[in-house]
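Action item from last week, closing it out:
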Amino acid sequence: MTKGILKMKKAISFFLVVSLLITMLYGSILTVHSSASTPIAVMIEEGGFSSSNTTGDSGTTLLWSKGTTDIDSGTIRFTNTARQAGAVVKRNQVKLTDGFSTYFKIYFSSNADGIAFLLYKADEPKLGDYGGALGYADADADDGVDKAIGNSIVVEFDTWNNYEGLDGQSWQSNWNNHVGIMFEGNAKHSTQSDSGNAVSLSAGLQGNYINAWVDYDGSIITVTYGTSATRSEGTTLTRAIQADDNVPLAGDDVYIGFTSSTGDNVTTHKLLKWYFMDT
């Protein structure tokens, strides 16, 4: 009888944990179903990042850090001074079937340049240029070295308008805080096809903690973000994949994670929590 009660308590505890994760990721509506083999690829609560789950090239932990990324009081700190670039990805690649859903909380102490969530096909984790490249794009097309992370889907949280180069827009103050869905490691909005509904201006990123939810069903990327931890109170943008887009598709093995960078301004960029569920 005692063993039976213990088994029942364990089952109830597991159900409550899964229910809490589903609530955080999707609110009251579950949009995709998780794989039976790996229902939760990443589940790190606020204050939970440490050397036991995040290490560099020589490590074997869940997460793989690159560049200037470091652990700071239980958070991932990508940058804390000028001209830096950092990244963190899940060390083992994820195979896309029907898509994925993810939730994360990020922080921007000031402006310039931002944080990007991305997934991409590659043999090993990559890190692009610093500054307006946000750690995923190529800031200098004339140096003969392409540092852009191609074959990728990127959600950028951009706090600086690089209007003379990367963002590719005429100067407007509301571009200093924008969220965009970008493809193929290209940070220039003016060259992105089908991006009309994929950019949100005046996003209020600078100096704030931002909660974000990203869903991908194999054909449409949906992003919701805001300062509130309640998804229904956020701003939503979407982008559909076109036939000629060079992006990860169903069946592909991909790296998932984040990049971030600064230019001449000093900003601390942090990742505070992260849940990821592939399908």
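Closing note: The first strand starts at residue 42 and ends at 44.
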